[in-house]
Amino acid sequence: MQASSGQAQAQLNSLQHIGLGAAQLEDTLTEMAAERSRLLQQIASQRSDIQHLFNMLALSNSAVEGVNDTVEAVLAGMQDE
Question: What stretches of 1-81 adopt beta strand conformation (E)?
Fold first, then answer.
């Protein structure tokens, strides 16, 4: 009887240890999910910033092309004189 009582206590201790491990795992997974969410938000924000920079670069390129066209027209006009 005492052996089965000891065995039952050992099993109970084992189950309690498993329960603690499961709780720790759940906490870790919750933390990882929160970190994943934070990183996804950061990526979305950076993606938006990068898109804005590409748009600004495209506008700058258009402006430079316009200036180049004007300079070329002025130079062509000067050569015609």
Answer: none
- Rounded to whole angstroms, the Cα distance separating 5 from 11 reads 10
The token pair at 39 is 């990183």
pLDDT digits 0-9 by tens, 19-45: 999 999 999 999 999 999 999 999 999
- DSSP letter for each residue of 9-46: HHHHHHHHHHHHHHHHHHHHHHHHHHHHHHHHHHHHHH
Q: How many residues does the chain have?
A: 81
Cα 30 to Cα 34, 39, 41, 75: the distances in Å are: 6, 14, 17, 67
